[in-house]
Design a protein that fits this description.
The protein has 4 helices and 9 strands, in the order βααββββββαββα. The chain is an alpha/beta fold and 243 residues long. The strands form 3 sheets. The chain has a 5-stranded mixed β-sheet with strand order 2-1-3-7-6, with helices on one face. A two-stranded antiparallel ribbon has the order 4-5. Strand 4 and strand 5 form a beta hairpin. The protein is globular, with a radius of gyration of 17 Å. The model has no long low-confidence stretch (mean pLDDT 97). The chain binds arginine, zinc ion (ZN) and calcium ion. Arginine (ARG) binds next to strand 6 and helix 3. One of its GO terms (molecular function) is metal ion binding.
Amino acid sequence: VNGQIEIPVVVHVIYRTNAENISDAQVQSQIDVLNEDFNLQNSDASLIPSVFSGVAANVGLNFKLDAITRTYSSKRSWRPNDDMKKASKGGVDPWDPSQYLNMWVVNSIKSGRSTILGYAQFPGGPAATDGVVIGYNFFGRVGTLSAPYDLGRTTTHEVGHWLNLRHIWGDGGCGVDDFVADTPISDGPNYGCPSFPTVRCSSTDMTMNYMDYVNDGCMYMFSNGQKDRMLSLFAPGGFREGM
Ligand code: ARG
Ligand code: ZN
Ligand code: CA
């Protein structure tokens, strides 16, 4: 697949309070972040260290906001069990996932006692739950946001998963890969804003990759290998062909 691929997006805002019913401007700011990050137009790309600048990818995906749906729910939090994707559970059913990237923006996602920023379904899962879920205060870069996750990178990360990317440490030790050759092997997530170089498993981690766990302001690239893995989904026979 060459050139620009367009991805129609529908954002389902599910709110209890007025603050959680985020503005159109906050939603649009998230679409803007995605269009920058997936086209290497993010201003912080200038921070990519020279050892990695040769593999920094212009993925070439265009996200087009087609609709925002707004739904009231009395729920104070949700679990990562896909209830928000089901009208029968007080959520909102997805628009045809073969034609749209569905994003659910909810007030809070609780996994055990902790709040998570967002989660995604990998390609190959059930159509009824395809898409990404993000906490409203981590969505976009203008409006009501919680630092250091206030630059829209949670959604960039989750859309990476939705396009089949793994965490760069492969969710395992030094012997486990993320199935991408140009992201160096690591053995766990990096947090905060790591200093460069951060060496683990005898190689320098690509801590500034969107698929690590660093702060929004400290992640600013996909790699060419990740680009190939994502774009293969849109090739003939790929899971997201015909989108
Ligand atoms: N913990 C989430 C996940 O694994 C998202 C992490 C996003 N990180 C960030 N800096 N926004 O899918
Ligand atoms: Zn993740
Ligand atoms: Ca790798």
